[in-house]
Amino acid sequence: MTTPVQPPHEPHPDHDRGLEFDLSTLLSRRRSLGMFLGAGAAAALAACTPGGPTGTAAATATATSTPTGSASAATSAAAATPSASASPTLTRAIAECGVEIPEETAGPFPGDGSNGPDALSASGVVRQDITASFGTSTSTAEGVPLTVTLTLLDNANGCTPLAGAAVYAWHCDREGRYSMYDSGLKNENYLRGVQEADANGQVTFTTIYPGAYSGRWPHIHFEVFESMTNATTAGQVLAVSQIALTDAACREVYASAGYEASARNFPRTTLKSDNVFGDDGGIYQLATMAGSVSAGYTAALNVTV
Known about the structure:
The chain is an alpha+beta fold. About 15% of the residues lie in helices and about 20% in strands. The chain has one domain: Aromatic compound dioxygenase (Protocatechuate 3,4-Dioxygenase, subunit A).
């Protein structure tokens, strides 16, 4: 079993909290990346690739973001038979399987109890709509609507849907601030929530488009757990990663009212210069996006673990 590579630290515009946590405890919560990397997995890495972004908002995504598909990927897709109710996203994900989602830092603001604040053990964290705080506060994060769907696939079992797994997702608000951590938001827990994967391995969150802050490409954090029980007790994590949002969607959203700070910060960081997505340009984490500022956006990502 190989030793996981130490994840990068994620900066924040106002401070550098969480570095000690990232360096000293994150590795203990990440699964070994070498568990399934035998000869067959190595072949899959070369043959199976993710699909490129589609839809209005993704039209200007970099052409090199998606490597060329292959005959072996098509053969793999034909061999796998999704359920009759499987969505197009799931069908596409099966053809892409073979490359596990890159492991990333949870950053200094996870809110999972690993460095203090803990949303996972709080009643109310299991929800689809994460725009408002739950518990003693009912504050709502303002912003352009965004619906995020993740399709979880089990790489060790022929890329079958991870039904019953759970996802904890969180991200900053449109000003680039994180609930439970930033000044004035320590009693808020909006933009955080847990969902259980359905029979197709899918979870969906209703939220708002996150802002862009200095030093980072716009993103959404998530942790994958084996079960809802593990998620709500901050148990063993199967994967820790991040979703990269598309350039086109970001440009459109950040030109709208309320995202003025993001409009200033966004041009300062590219996918290639980002300290999380920069090693490969986010090719396995770049969401498929569509929508508009007036109607809201959708983002989808296939997560192979």
